[in-house]
Amino acid sequence: AVVSTQSTGAGASIGITQVRILMEIYRRTLTRSDCKRGRQLQENRRFYATKMVCCMVAGYFFCTLPIMVLLFIQTAGATPPKQYTAFAVFVTFFNSLLNPAIYWYFNRTYRASFDANVLKMPSMKCVSRQAHSI
User: Fold this and answer.
1) What is the pTM of this model?
2) 98-109 tens-digit pLDDT
3) Nearest to residue 54, comparing CAs of 87, 88, 25?
């Protein structure tokens, strides 16, 4: 299947937009605070947010790179191997799995919520027992 080459430009512009947002976040000055500890905490949050956005952009770039190469090969008129096509599609979808993992690693609030709602879910066996006891 031939994929439209118009998506190549959209992917690049999304990456450029994310980098611009990252640069803007980093350039903004810290709000003035009377407390040195408050400024330190604010700087730490800013650092981790910047680090998280960098990981997100890098993950997006490396996960979409194979599909961009695939589109380039198809545009040149060559037929890529089926294994490469499958790999490129898999890695592109893998980005959807990578994003929650990055959020989980860098964001304490997201991690607590994720752990409470997903990892500590009762098993279906327990839910089934509760339903029969009603």
Assistant:
1) 0.57
2) 988 888 888 888
3) 25
